[in-house]
Amino acid sequence: xxxxxxxxxxxxxxxxxxxxxxIDFGHKTVKVSFCQLLSLRYKAxxxxxxxxxxxxxxxxxxxxxxxxxxEHLILLDTLQVLDFTELIQGTFAMMELRSVLTA
Amino acid sequence: xxxIARQQISINLEVMxxxxxxxxxxxxxxxxxxxxxxxxxxxxLSRSASFFYKQSLEEREHxxxxxxxxxxxxxxxxxxxxxxxxxxxxxxxxIFELALQQEIAITQSIYKIVAACRKVNDFGAENFLQWFVxxxxxxxxxxxxxxxxMELMGDDAALKLIDxxxxxx
Lengths: 103, 169
Fold this sequence. Notes:
The structure holds 2 protein chains of 2 kinds. By secondary structure, chain A is of the alpha+beta class. Chain A has helices at 34-47, 50-58, 78-102, and strands at residues 2-6, 11-15, 20-24, 29-32, 62-67, 72-77. Chain A starts with a strand and ends with a helix. The relative contact order of chain A is 0.18.
């Protein structure tokens, strides 16, 4: 597994051999396909909108994130949501960088 | 280090995001035309109603075309939510003026995506969008022609007479 990006709480890896990605959430490591990673990117964007952050702060400061067709469920507080968004942005930025370097 | 992401997606992510936003705009446009068709139908303006039913269908087809393209490229298309559809209009002329404004907004949006494609060298997406560039020219022209006809007939012309001159397409 090759490291892609590490945020404060989470880390992403890619495995060329398995043709998939791994996200280490601290308490568990989850295997995701590229499509599932795209879905997480979409969810991270939705969760990090100012409206959603404001909603979280007004409602117990937690949100549920389901992914991989509801196979996984994690509970995130506001800081974790922001950190998760950073992980996803960093992961895709690293992929783009590789794309430029290997072009 | 192998780039496995590129093997799974052939569209730039920034362009994909913009195309997803375009999906929402096309679907919104389709719903607006449906509301316009309903208004015309209720007023007995059958030719205008048919025109907008057809426009609504075309916008949905545009939306589906983009939707399919994103998924075919290995991206993730998102089904849009539609809200804020007005159902009240002051006149038939206002409807066509709003329709032209809407088409112009869609054209500008397409141009922005084409510009983004050029910036990131996404030639596949740019090539795909060329059909939309041409289509938007035709859409704008057809509505502009109707507004010109209304202008020629003057404000005193009976609505039914104007309606009879709306192209069947």
